[in-house]
Amino acid sequence: MIGQKLQELRKNKRMSLSEVAEQAGVAKSYLSSIERGIQSNPSIQFMEKVGKVLGVTVNELLINNEGLAIREQLDDEWLKLLEDARKSGISKEEFREFVEFNKWKKSH
C-alpha cells in the first residue's frame, strides 16, 4: 500500500526514483524495493524524508485511499458530532452497537 502510494506520488510529480532518493537522502535501491512491495515496513524516518520531498506528511502516506475518501465525505458537523461523542466517553464499540441497532430498526 505505502509503496504504491509513494510510486503514484512520485510519478505525479514527474520525478525519477533517483531524484527522490537523492533529495530525500535515502538509498535508491531501498526506495525501489518499497515501491515494488519487496520491502513493506519502511521506518517513520524514511517516510518523513521521502514524504517531505513529495510534499506529503507521514499521516497522508499511511491513510489508504478508502479512508481518505471517507474523510472527504464527512462535513464539519459530522466531525464535530463524532468528536463530541468521543469526548463524552462513548466507546467505539458502543457507537458501533448504536449504528447496528439503527440499521436493524430501519430494516424491520
TrEMBL record:
<dbReference type="Pfam" id="PF08671">
    <property type="entry name" value="SinI"/>
</dbReference>
<dbReference type="InterPro" id="IPR036281">
    <property type="entry name" value="SinR/SinI_dimer_dom_sf"/>
</dbReference>
<dbReference type="InterPro" id="IPR001387">
    <property type="entry name" value="Cro/C1-type_HTH"/>
</dbReference>
<protein>
    <submittedName>
        <fullName>Helix-turn-helix domain-containing protein</fullName>
    </submittedName>
</protein>
<feature type="domain" description="Sin">
    <location>
        <begin position="65"/>
        <end position="103"/>
    </location>
</feature>
<dbReference type="InterPro" id="IPR010981">
    <property type="entry name" value="SinR/SinI_dimer_dom"/>
</dbReference>
<keyword id="KW-0238">DNA-binding</keyword>
<dbReference type="InterPro" id="IPR050807">
    <property type="entry name" value="TransReg_Diox_bact_type"/>
</dbReference>
<dbReference type="Pfam" id="PF01381">
    <property type="entry name" value="HTH_3"/>
</dbReference>
<feature type="domain" description="HTH cro/C1-type">
    <location>
        <begin position="6"/>
        <end position="61"/>
    </location>
</feature>
<dbReference type="InterPro" id="IPR010982">
    <property type="entry name" value="Lambda_DNA-bd_dom_sf"/>
</dbReference>
